[in-house]
Specification:
176 residues, 10 helices, disordered N terminus
Length: 176
């Protein structure tokens, strides 16, 4: 019940009708961002169901193919209760919203998830995409670090060392 009230209250902040809510979120991405931040705070405070409900409400009231929708997909993935749900939404962000603010984050998360599952080939694929699609991205050092980890696990010592050296150099130069 509390989750529903929180969700309704946050929707009311956006606008009283579906049409107005969609118009408001499309015209004012900072409104969606503000509501998503509230969802993040709820999850961080231990109220995952309420935080997920808020993210779901933003998705329901945000037109697809907008930056706010991509952000909400990313946060739904981050707060997902299952790996499959998270993977599905991270894939959508990485593939359908490849230029979105969180696309690089989604690729890194997908690589980490694949590596954790023992699927190093997929992990490398996502990390390679990060390198190509986000060459100057803020997560380059983390991408290089994870590339090194995956390569070490595959026994490719020389390329792994090169990736880890690149990660260290990028981190010290302020690149993630």
């Amino acid at each position: 019940m509390c989750e529903r009230l929180v969700s309704i209250a946050d929707i009311a902040i956006i606008g009283p009708s579906t049409g107005q809510a969609q118009l408001s979120l499309a015209a004012n991405p900072s409104a969606a961002y503000s509501v998503l931040r509230r969802g993040q705070r709820l999850v961080a405070d231990g109220n995952g169901p309420a935080g997920r409900a808020i993210v779901d409400s933003v998705l329901a009231f945000t037109p697809e193919n907008t930056p706010a929708y991509a952000d909400a997909l990313y946060w739904r993935a981050t707060f997902a209760e299952t790996r499959d749900r998270a993977r599905f939404d991270y894939l959508r962000v990485a593939n359908e919203y490849a230029t979105a603010a969180h696309a690089e984050d989604a690729l890194l998360r997908l690589a980490q998830m694949a590596n954790d599952a023992g699927d190093r080939a997929s992990a490398k694929k996502y990390l390679d995409r990060m390198t190509v699609e986000h060459a100057d991205g803020r997560l380059r050092a983390q991408g290089a670090y994870w590339t090194g980890r995956v390569l070490l696990a595959d026994g490719a010592t020389l390329p792994a060392c090169a990736a880890l050296t690149r990660a260290q150099a990028t981190r010290t130069s302020g690149g993630g």
